[in-house]
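Bench notes, afternoon.
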Amino acid sequence: MNAKERKWVPFFLLTASLSLLIGFWGTVRLDKRPGIRAILEKSDGHLWISQLTPGGKAEKSGLKSRDLVLEVNKNPVQSNSDLNFHLDQKRIGESVNLILQRNGAKIDLTVPLERKNSLSFLLVNFLAGLFLWVMGVFVFLKKPNYQVARTF
């Protein structure tokens, strides 16, 4: 490694270390993300529940498949993004008030929030990120003078 290549190494190692810490912090934050354990679909401008996780808190609180989600905490909901926006402001274990439409009638339910992401999802995300990080470090250390290696 010549002097020109060596000048990039400290900067790269600092940047790589910071990106690893940010990635780890992001995985921890994903673990704390609240949600409703259900598969939601959008059609005709409405968000409806297509499938519930059996035995989940949402099912136990009275939520059923084919319910239309109209409001979350008195805020109108038309897409998954709208729902996630309002749920992300809460914590796991807190409850949200949902206004639903079931068989033409409006229903008001209180649903406790659960962990949105399963542990297997978190593990796969973390391992994929760690693999890419290790590959990036390896590529850079092999060819630190190449612009492509520094960009990767």
